[in-house]
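INFO  loader      accepted 1 record
INFO  loader      residues=365
INFO  predictor   begin
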Amino acid sequence: MTKSKGNPFIIGIGLAAALAVAGPAWADVNFAGKKVQIVVPAKEGGGLDRYARLLQPFFQKYLPGNPTVLVFNKPGGGTVKGTNWFERNAKPDGLIVLGATTSVHTTYVFGGKKVKFKELGWRSVIVSPLGTVFYARTETGVKGKDPVADVKALRAGKWITSGKTPNSAELRMFLALDMLGIKNVKPVFGVSTGKRRKAVIRGEMHLSIDSAGAFMKKTMPYVKKGVVVPWMTLGFAKSDGGIVRDPLFPDLPSFPEVYKAVSGKAPSGTDWAMLRHLFNMGVMASKGIMLPNGTPDDIRGAWITAAKKALKDPELLKLAKREMGAYPQSFGDAGDAIIRNAVDVAPDAKSWMDNWIKTTLKKKQ
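INFO  predictor   done
INFO  writer      dumping tokens
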């Protein structure tokens, strides 16, 4: 297997029960002689591309009949172009699957008329969480030791950050900062995650977020050099819905902890309901493999079985361990439930968020 550099795919090493292969062997499903496409609606080299290419050889190994599995990048429109293509072209025969990511979820909810796909109809194979880490340049005054002092410092200055679009994956960063009263942040749009990270490191911007894998691989060296300081994560959801500290960053407070430390009360209200959706989009459903609406149970079962076998493969586990994995994976109906928690947004919450983007976020440009 070709090693994938900077891989953000993270697996909980001690989750034997979650990784156990269960259910029938789906003996009637056979992809022998077929070509299977994993559609990635983003450019090569990004987090979703690396995730899909990590899984690709293992799906080829464990799908029944050992089909040829290929990754096809179809970038454009903040994941809309490739995802619309998947919706139009994928048949319920298991031969075309989608690599989904946070930007797919946010554009589904906020993308408007350009979005032609119906995410709630898809059938999950695997849904993979990844934590979200907030960090700032040291000259902002952030020290990462006292959340109240850090928020006070960030409220006092004027800062610059960026996002791909006003309704892209960075929404979770913009809304979280706003809820903490950090309202003096100018967003620059049209900037990718990687370019924002480099701008922060160069001192051209001040605040950013990273997925857990990207932070450990690409940002941590600059933490050690004293250039940037991590100060918060969005947290991680327990089975009962409560949010706790990210298991990969147990020393960093979660957003609800920081909010309560600053305000003296737990977060609530429409803005918090919307941030919970963005949290599920950005953390709990960060990456995934989806089959189209109408895919029969036997075909989805074959895909899920292949995914579970892949997650028991020593070669993949070795790579996952090197990436300091700490997160459980979800399959099938459990993955569908996570997707619903992410994108099944009540009309009043969506209307509130649309208005906030228009009247608050865009006016800060």
